[in-house]
Amino acid sequence: MDLNAAADAFTAHLTQVRRLSPATVRAYRSDLHDLSDAVGESSLADVDLETLRDWLWRATRRGDARATLARRAAAARSFFAWAKDEELIGLDPSLRLVAPKRGRTLPAVASKDGMRDLLDARRETAADGDPIHLRDHAILELLYGSGMRVSELCGIDIDDLDLDRATVRVVGKGSKERVVPYGIPARDALGAYLTRGRSVLVARVERTAPAVFLGARGGRLGPRAVYTLVAHALGPIIGAEAVGPHALRHSAATHLLDGGADLRAVQEILGHASLGTTQIYTHVSSERLTATYRLAHPRA
User: Fold this and answer.
1) Which residues are catalytic?
2) Residue 111: closest CA among 247, 260, 273, 267
3) Other beta carbons less than 10 A from residue 7's beta carbon
């Protein structure tokens, strides 16, 4: 079978059977497309271990990051394991394929004082009653207060909120549902937005939208608008040029652990499938504690 045709069937399998996120499927398809370009007209059965090693070597030479190389190796292993299960090939050439280990890059995290000042300033701005100001304040409070992903936030409908219990039902990666708690400031900001802001935005469209967060024209707010909001609000605090909504998720997780939260509880809140993914935040907390110790302790 042609490699491109097999890759299309594999990505359909990832979407329909394994139910991976669209972003993951796009990444895998891009990796396999790159492999197809590297091997040319070769059929699926012609690809061997040396071909795959040469493919990764070329990516290394052009400067691809170690994380990208590791993902491409993982995509190849997953793809050829599937092809063998489907009896498209007799032997899996990727079994001994090894990629460089990922370098540990710690996420950007805002300080607690910085987040407090930011959210207090946003609350004062929202006091003017402008629906966009109310919405933006609620978004920032909820992202920080719950640690949810931006895609999860944009997908929330009115029925997903439980304001009395201060929880929200979200749909995460792999279409997995979970209920996430959030704090009193987020509940207050949401209440103000729902009663005084969202109703104004809903009135701008003929058909009522079920989404909690709406754009200026009354439609469901998209991830790009949230990215712009967070980058503008959080960039000056963290000092990074490109800060997205994930920075609030990183900050929420780190501050939870700094406050003594159980690692597995944080894993559940964030919706991580693996505890290892959550453990990166323990390194963030450790470095922050070490820095504080060195600044404050007389024997440091």
Assistant:
1) 149, 173, 246, 249, 272, 281
2) 247
3) 22
